[in-house]
Design goal:
It is a multi-pass membrane protein. The protein has 366 residues and is of the alpha+beta class. 58% of the residues lie in helices and 15% in strands. The chain has helices spanning 9-47, 54-90, 93-99, 104-142, 241-247, 256-268, 274-285, 289-296, 310-336, 342-365, and strands at residues 154-162, 165-173, 180-189, 195-206, 211-214, 217-220, 225-228, 234-235.
């Protein structure tokens, strides 16, 4: 038995089922509570827009809930690990397994296998659901919960330079020559940087070169007068769709492949990409955090429950798990500031706590 990594099939299925059920239960509890609190804070803004009602609230929930699931799945895996292992310890099941010849690693093996499957499901969910929901939600928030953008690939609150002038768009949909700007403001400035006039339009399309405006209005700073302009007015001739593609990259709203293409485009344009590269690596290391949780929470599985230290062990396991999330966020912040290389920023916490967890397990139980 000592030479088999997994215990028997019956034991493996039993432990895996316990772990999965508790992950789903804890995740459901966290998401429901946090979604309720978040909806209470945002419902006033949503219902404050004319025409919005229950359907818009449900739309917000459908867009916000995937973000909460993705963010708190690793926390759920940590809490589920502690609950599962503490229960097994309290019922003397761990003692029975070790008396049958299983090592500490073999007891945890079914949890590791389950965590790997959870991490794979989390990665797929992030790529297929969360990125699209995040893109749509940010675009909806950019228009103050007005009309829901019909496309998911939306850039919101984009600022672009046109020589001395500044071009702003609330949202940009489409790509390439088919790009469409909504909520456009073009600030015409002199060489000293002083604004001479502002041109606004609800919509602009690419005119190659420049952007053709629909129903534009112009504001002159000196005269403080607003006057309608002719349809088809073209502005910002130096702004191209390629410039838009690298103007604002939101790693949370792009899949792994899309973010990779955005990074390549920004590198070709000579832009700094360290922060985006760290986010690219973290799209892989983030879901894998669930694999660490059985290792960090393993301290709650061993030791005699009747010794009165079960609660202390559970607290230690919880402390190790939450310390991982703190260090992981700190490393990402250091990477964003350029203090860490992107790869190190995304993976340092994972490797560090894998070594810490393995050391604690070997020194105390093996």
């Amino acid at each position: 038995m000592q030479f088999d990594f997994f215990p028997s099939k019956t034991m493996t299925v039993y432990l895996a089922k316990l772990f999965v059920v508790r992950i789903l239960a804890v995740l459901a509890m966290l998401v429901l509570v946090l979604q309720m609190l978040d909806l209470l804070s945002e419902s006033g803004k949503i219902l404050g827009v004319a025409g919005n009602g229950q359907a818009q609230l449900l739309t917000y929930v459908s867009l916000r809930m995937p973000q909460l699931v993705a963010r708190f799945l690793p926390y759920s895996a940590l809490l589920a690990t502690i609950i599962t292992l503490a229960t097994l310890n309290q019922n003397s099941e761990v003692i029975a397994m070790k008396a049958a010849g299983l090592s500490a690693h073999q007891v945890l093996a079914p949890l590791f296998l389950t965590a790997v499957l959870v991490a794979a499901a989390s990665f797929t969910f992030n790529e297929r659901v969360v990125t699209r929901a995040t893109s749509t939600l940010k675009a909806w928030q950019a228009v103050d919960y007005g009309v829901v953008p019909p496309q998911s690939a939306v850039k919101s609150n984009v600022w672009l330079t046109d020589g001395d002038n500044i071009l702003f768009a609330q949202t940009i949909t489409g790509s390439g020559p088919g790009s469409v700007m909504n909520g456009v403001s073009w600030y015409r400035r002199d060489q000293a940087g002083m604004t001479q006039g502002i041109v606004r339009s609800p919509r602009a399309t690419f005119a190659n070169p420049g952007w053709k405006l629909d129903r534009p209005t112009g504001f002159q700073v000196q005269s403080a007068q607003v006057a309608p302009l002719s349809d088809g007015t073209v502005i910002a001739p130096s702004v191209t769709p390629a410039q838009i593609a690298i103007s604002k990259v939101d790693p949370d709203a792009e899949s792994l492949s899309e973010l990779g293409r955005s990074i390549a485009a920004m590198k070709a344009a000579g832009r700094r990409t360290g922060e985006l590269e760290g986010s690219w690596w973290h799209k892989i290391s983030g879901p894998l955090a669930a694999v660490l949780m059985p290792l960090l929470g393993a301290v709650a599985a061993f030791g005699l429950a009747r010794s009165g230290q079960l609660f202390v062990r559970a607290v230690i396991g919880m402390g190790l798990g939450f310390a991982f999330f703190v260090v992981d966020n700190a490393a990402l912040a250091m990477g964003n500031f350029g203090g860490y290389p992107p790869f190190l920023a995304a993976w340092s916490a994972f490797v560090l706590f894998a070594l810490i967890g393995e050391t604690v397990l070997i020194r105390t139980e093996e």
